[in-house]
Each structure stands twice: as C-alpha cells, then as structure tokens.
Amino acid sequence: MLLLDTASLYFRAYFGVPEIKAEDGTPVNAVRGLLEFISRLVNDYSPTDLVCCWDNDWRPQWRVDLIPSYKAHRVVEELETVPDVEEVPDPLQVQVPIIREVLAAAGICVIGVDGYEADDVIGTLATGAGMPVDVVTGDRDLFQLVDDAAGVRILYPTRGVGDPDLVDEKWVIAKYGITAAQYADFATMRGDTSDGLPGVKGVGEKTAAKLLEQYGDLDGIVAAVADPTTSLTKAQRQKFIDAVPYLAVAPQVVAVARDLDLDRSRTALPSAPADPERLRELAATYNLTSPVARLEAALARV
Q1: What DSSP line would sit under 179-232, residue for residue?
Q2: Cβ atoms within 10 A of the Cβ of 280, count?
Q3: Banded pLDDT at 162 (limits 50, 70, 90)
Q4: What is the rounded average pLDDT for all residues in the chain?
C-alpha cells in the first residue's frame, strides 16, 4: 500500500515544476507534477492499494487548544466554524480543486477526516493495514510510524520522488541515534519551528537522543528529573522543570492518530480511470494530456 501525504507532494510539485498554464491562463504545474509523481510511484513500487491522504483540517482546533502556537505563523485568517485559512500561494490554491477533480475522475482513493490532518489519516491506515505500507511524505513527523515488523517505512523525497530515502528502523537509528518508536518523544523535546512547537528549551537533537538512550522514553526522562539520585545535571533538570506545562500537552499534539474511523474499502488502485470521459475533458481543459496519459499507462500495469 502506498499512502501519499498529498499536500506535501503538491507543494513540492508547485515549487519544483516550472510554471505551466492551461489555455485559459490557469496555472497547472502542481497538478501536472502531482500526477507525474503518482505515475512514477506506481511504476516504481507496483502497489495494490494507493490512498491520497488529505488535510480536511490542516490545523485542528484540538491541537491548537493544547498548544496555541501550533502552526500559528501559517494562518492567514482565523475562522470559528471551519478550518483556519492557511498561507498558500494563490497560484497553488486555485489548483487544489482541480487536483481533487482529476483524482476523482481517475478513480484514485482520497481520504480525509474532518478535524484531523493527513498525518492522522496516514497513521490510521498504516496501523493494522495487513500488508506492507510505504508512506510518501516530506514530513519528518511521520518517522514515528516506521515499523520493520509491520512492514511500514517512509519514502522521504529528496528530489522529486524518483530517488527517495527509504526510511526504516536502521535509517532512523543511523540518522538520529534513536529507534522509530522513540521518534515522537524525540520530536517533542526537540521541537519544530515550522509547526510552532517550541520544544524543551536548550534540548537539541543530540541531548534528546542521549536522554532517550539512557531513560527509554519521555516518561522515563520525566521520572529521572524528579529522582535526585539520577545522573541528570542540575541544568538539565531545570530545563525539564521549566518545560512542564509544554510536556503535559505536547506529546498529544506530536503523536499522529492511529484509530480514526475510516472507510478502508476503497483503497485498491484501479487498473483504469473511474470516469475516462471526465478525465479526458479535464486533461483537455487544463493542459494535462501528457501527464494523464502517463497516469493511465501506469494504472494499466496494475
């Protein structure tokens, strides 16, 4: 099964593919790039199932309630009854509905859940999938899902999607000095400015990894802070004491959901478009003839 962090990929396509427009002037580089990515992935990995996981809510209120700074720097407009408006380049924003239309006509499964991010959809689908799972994402937070025993790994693109890093347990250990099961605690302590997560002030990646090696997990570290007989320095103890309010809520924000109520019945990758006539219309309207043809050829190989 291939699980795509769709927004991560269409952002990558938008910034990586030169500007291309439809006849009416609509930019379509992100649409074209995403379709090319999907075709390449299908050809390279021959999945039986593929899901474009969607951010129905890119900044869930329940996460914001726990940490108000969560993704706050990316908010253009705060709204009360629907998800906040994210800062997205206008030429990309107009392409998102086109992406949804093309995926629907192609018959490629799209799953999103109100009140949750694509990461949570991915976490749920990857857990108990009953088959090997490759998650395609540029988001390090999803390294927490890596599980050699369950056959879950991350395809972490470096350039395009043609030559990604294959992130498994060995890769995580070599890169960070921790196990994948420790990654969420590691990320909680390190923090992430791109997501508005402050982390534990003064605790970087090396210190976080060393503490996890010594005490196993964040709960073990917190217990060591409270135990005067442990080898923590006075400065280290103070850093975690100062971070108590953050540590009380951050693990819930960092951890991806794994138990959403999802319809798993539509994940099979089709061998032909669901609505070939509509797909041809969209291809003609939006200058997508070549990438759509390559997508159809890739599906035919399934």
Answers
A1: -GGGHHHHHHHH-BGGGTB--STT--HHHHHHHHHHHSSHHHHHHHHH-TTSS-
A2: 17
A3: confident
A4: 94
Per-position b or e across 40-54, b if 16+ CB within 10 A of its CB: ebbeeeebebbbbbb
Q: Which residues sit opposite 111 in a β-bridge?
A: 53
Q: Enter the tokens of residue 54.
A: 């969607």
Question: What percent of the chain clears pLDDT 90, i.e. is strictly above it?
Answer: 90
DSSP at 263: -
**pTM, to two decimals:** 0.94
Please check whether residue 171 is in contact with residue 40, taking contact to mean a CB–CB distance below 8 angstroms. Answer: no
pLDDT at 160 over 80: no
Find all residues with CB under 8 Å of 229, minimum gap 6, and list them. none
Return the sign of the alpha-carbon dihedral for residues 61, 267, 52, 136: positive
**The two three-digit tokens of residue 281, written as one number:** 């219309």
Q: CB–CB of 290/35 below 8 Å?
A: no
- The letter for the amino acid at 140 is R
Tell me the pLDDT tens digit for each residue of 21-41.
999 999 999 999 999 999 999
